[in-house]
């Protein structure tokens, strides 16, 4: 019954929810994302009024494997690069860290952030800022207790750098791409129709997001606000996993991250449009005189 209620609500949102400034792959898709954000917000509100044990029992309705206390892995228990007494692998600490599930998550996550933010300097502020947050909260989350080489070399200089590099190359590719949006029925060949159908999932146009945090005190505060919200969203992922006993490989973690990525795409785009329209009068967009509903929903 609850799932049927959610399905009806999402169908209504797909048809009647407010549209974003994004039109690809279809405005209805982003209205559906808005509906999913509302459902997620209502679910968090429900959990907020439960005690810790009831919240953990509730999670078993979403995944039967949950509700069991998990041993948290501390990555900083042994920071030696070379372990001579280990008979199987003398570099066991490096090996286990490199083949941890969070390595792939780091790369894919920073690729997605680069595609959304499109500003390399701001991305590095977020990258280093989150590592500082790990240092700050390592006394609360054992998962944040990392070795210096794991935090600086593997996270910042390898995984985050590669994700940012790949994301910015994706941005430059679409920035220099020429779009010819001819209707599907006017394509001369079957291959042309297939390419046109697939291109529906690419941007109709690629706008340059100019953050310019040093334009003035107000702009600096506005960009800093974005960074704070961004890091809070990331931090909540780890606190929710810890409090609700959700293992890192549980599908709910992946589903939540995908949902947040979809929510953040129109949110960041509309927030940047709000800043640019007030200072640059960007063409093709109506002036954004107030914060969008998607940004308020994310907050």
Automatic annotation (TrEMBL):
<keyword id="KW-0808">Transferase</keyword>
<protein>
    <recommendedName>
        <fullName>CDP-diacylglycerol--serine O-phosphatidyltransferase</fullName>
        <ecNumber>2.7.8.8</ecNumber>
    </recommendedName>
</protein>
<keyword id="KW-0472">Membrane</keyword>
<dbReference type="GO" id="GO:0006646">
    <property type="term" value="P:phosphatidylethanolamine biosynthetic process"/>
</dbReference>
<feature type="transmembrane region" description="Helical">
    <location>
        <begin position="29"/>
        <end position="49"/>
    </location>
</feature>
<keyword id="KW-0594">Phospholipid biosynthesis</keyword>
<keyword id="KW-0443">Lipid metabolism</keyword>
<dbReference type="GO" id="GO:0005789">
    <property type="term" value="C:endoplasmic reticulum membrane"/>
</dbReference>
<keyword id="KW-0256">Endoplasmic reticulum</keyword>
<comment type="pathway">
    <text>Lipid metabolism.</text>
</comment>
<dbReference type="GO" id="GO:0006659">
    <property type="term" value="P:phosphatidylserine biosynthetic process"/>
</dbReference>
<keyword id="KW-1133">Transmembrane helix</keyword>
<keyword id="KW-1208">Phospholipid metabolism</keyword>
<dbReference type="GO" id="GO:0003882">
    <property type="term" value="F:CDP-diacylglycerol-serine O-phosphatidyltransferase activity"/>
</dbReference>
<dbReference type="GO" id="GO:0106245">
    <property type="term" value="F:L-serine-phosphatidylethanolamine phosphatidyltransferase activity"/>
</dbReference>
<comment type="function">
    <text>Catalyzes a base-exchange reaction in which the polar head group of phosphatidylethanolamine (PE) is replaced by L-serine.</text>
</comment>
<feature type="transmembrane region" description="Helical">
    <location>
        <begin position="223"/>
        <end position="247"/>
    </location>
</feature>
<dbReference type="Pfam" id="PF03034">
    <property type="entry name" value="PSS"/>
</dbReference>
<keyword id="KW-0444">Lipid biosynthesis</keyword>
<comment type="pathway">
    <text>Phospholipid metabolism; phosphatidylethanolamine biosynthesis; phosphatidylethanolamine from CDP-diacylglycerol: step 1/2.</text>
</comment>
<dbReference type="InterPro" id="IPR004277">
    <property type="entry name" value="PSS"/>
</dbReference>
<feature type="transmembrane region" description="Helical">
    <location>
        <begin position="253"/>
        <end position="271"/>
    </location>
</feature>
<comment type="similarity">
    <text>Belongs to the CDP-alcohol phosphatidyltransferase class-I family.</text>
</comment>
<feature type="transmembrane region" description="Helical">
    <location>
        <begin position="152"/>
        <end position="171"/>
    </location>
</feature>
<keyword id="KW-0812">Transmembrane</keyword>
